[in-house]
Amino acid sequence: MNRSLWIIGAALVGVVAGALILKTYITLAAPAFDCIAPRHHCIKVTVDPTSNTLSVDSERLKKTGRDHVIQWIIDNGPEQRYLFPNNGIAFAGAGGAEFNCQIDNSDARYFQCGDANGKPGTYKYTVRVIGNPQPAPLDLDPYIVNN
Hints:
21% of the residues lie in helices and 33% in strands.
């Protein structure tokens, strides 16, 4: 009887450990988005922990044509927990009508905008993140160029 209880206990520990590993893997995995696919673009957003400044890895994204999708990804370092607010990516002027943007409701480290029309122009947008400590500047203003 003791041996049966020991086997059941070991199996239970194995199942719980497996579930925790799977949960960690699923939590760390990015939402389904292919940055390599045609007309898909990813822009990494970081907060430098030393200078506490916000930056993106593409200050000026150039693209041509219709039906592009752009995803911003907050690349948190150790001990960082920055997220996008609902207005995490906001286009100025005509860009507000050109781009259809939304936060990823399942993970606020991701923000996505679609550009169905691809209307030529240079579109300034603002990146905002929330977290502690709040980065300076609070906002960053890069561009997307439609050719």
